[in-house]
Amino acid sequence: MAASSSRVMLGPLVAAIDQGTSSTRFLVFNAKTAELLSHHQVEINQSFPKEGWVEEDPKEILQSVYECMERTCEKLTQLNIDISNIKAIGVTNQRETTLVWDKETGEPLYNAIVWLDLRTQSTVERLINKTPGRNKNHLKHKTGLPISTYFSAVKLRWLMDNVDEVAEAVLTHRAMFGTVDSWLIWCLTGGKSGGVHCTDVTNASRTMLFNIHTLDWDPELCKYFDIPMEILPKVRSSSEIYGLMVSPHCLCKSGSLSGIPISGCLGDQSAALVGQMCFQEGQAKNTSVLTYLFNCYLLQPVMSDHGLLTTVAYKLGRDKPACYALEGSVAIAGAVVRWLKDNLGIIQTSTELEKLAASVGTSYGCYFVPAFSGLYAPYWEPSARGIICGLTQFTNKSHLAFAALEAVCFQTREILDAMNQDSGIPLTQLQVDGGMTSNRLLMQLQADILCIPVVKPSMPETTALGAAMAAGAAEGVSVWSLRPEDLSEVTSEKFEPQINPEESEFRYARWKKAVQRAMNWETTEPISNGNGETSIFSSVPLGFYILGSMLMLIGAKYIAGQCPL
Fold it and tell me: Which residues, including other chains, have CB under 8 Å from residue 372's CB and lie 6 or more apart?
């Protein structure tokens, strides 16, 4: 957009804070066209105090938000865009990451424990041991989740048991618990001077303290984990005004964001789904960032019989019903690329993988099961280990690169099969976004293995867009319509299947055979590392989602009164 001597008037604008595991971004969209006008990104540092521990600094996370706001406002001013037209701000965040802070001082009491952290393995084992029959699904009828290190309740329990400052603050009624969304909203709406302590249903549903039927914190669940309910944030819908920006830090040199309502909040995967506008039956989307997540939207929660989780997809308004999701996870793309680059050294950058695989165009019968720390959905088999089979003297690194890309597609197929069995909703196409979508060979392989089209939108920032849409559509803001007829058409590129179904089925059957070879490889008995600690590689808990790619399968099923937007 060319600069001019006068401010460019674009109508209402909506901003989004996108706080992820590795970076924070602030983006501004045109509410009428969904066009991204400007954004800024800041990387976030992670610390690894011990094997399996992953932490981030809550203050650094907050400061990164302020910096992104400042820089984005400056860029908008350079474009002669009037910042006063920003009418709302949405928040989307890394899910499950757990924080506790002092409501009187506003200071964090410990680093944020990141979602992929494994320190709570002993906590999980202790909790499972006290369930009838040592059943990890003992709470699933209320939470939709297994007892696992992945979710927030066990992280909070660990903090209360192991951090004196947290335990003392809980006893003296000064502690506040929250996921990243709660921390940011509380700080941005005033912090210790009246900040709003809240979360939304999508983030709450990932804690194991939230009843997905009543849509509120469950006293029995809190008693089970021995967590006082007074430290929990208030649960709100994903689209309503939570509070106004009042922090003095939100005053940009190029204009003030003070007084703007924060009116949208969604966990990152739910936000990406809204941003993809996947509201029709038989649609699917894949965010290739961290783990594969598959979601099928339903009006009522449905418990999976095929290794999937049940979670809240979104609730777009206080008076709107919640939509639910079946979700699955596998550990694949990102971990495979890093392994080929860092461990084997056959590529220097992730972009080289496509060139290497494309140079041969086949795996030549080589199959790669990347079960580095066990198999996840739909198997949930922690004893499995990675395997490469079908090797011959002819096999070279290019065939291995091709097999690695195929592994992404085969594992996608396995979860989609499980989803179809649980939901009965036919998948007609897969919508994709995220870093891995730049690999065109992978996109084509995905279409070939699934035997359905794969659609890549031209605008990749769908996670932030979803948060902006929820914020702009909130009652009291109402600058963004979510009615299907009002949604902007998304331009995209479509990858059609190019092999016949018989060949796809043959390759998939060979993959399944390779998976069986990977089973029952490692003992699940804990092995001490000599310091009295258990190695993370000796017992992989259900629900650990190792870095991979993210996929959400949606089939927004319009039944009975349908799922209103």
Answer: 331, 335, 339, 385, 386, 546
Among residues 232, 279, 245, the alpha carbon closest in space to that of 90 is found at 245
Are the beta carbons of 39 and 488 closer than 8 angstroms? no
Per-residue pLDDT band at 241 (split at 50, 70, 90):
very high
Q: How many CA atoms lie within 13 A of 409 on its CB side?
A: 29
84 C-beta neighbours (distance < 10 Å), count: 12
Distances (CA, A) of 469 to 30, 98, 479: 10, 26, 9
pLDDT in tens, 244-256: 998 665 555 545 7
**Distance, CA of 11 to chain centre:** 31
Residue 449: HSE in the Cβ half-sphere, 13 Å Cα cutoff: 25
Type of residue at 19: Q
- pLDDT, tens only, 350-384: 789 999 999 999 999 999 998 876 677 777 676 67
Angle, alpha carbons 472-477-479 (nearest 5°): 55
Nearest to 285 by CA among 302, 304, 272: 272
Label the pairing between strands 251-252 and 86-93: unpaired
Q: How much is the pLDDT for 489?
A: 66
Mapped onto helix, strand or coil, the DSSP state of residue 344 is: helix
Paired strand residues for 184? none
pLDDT of residue 537: 36
The residues pairing with 431 across neighbouring beta strands, listed in sequence order, are 285, 455
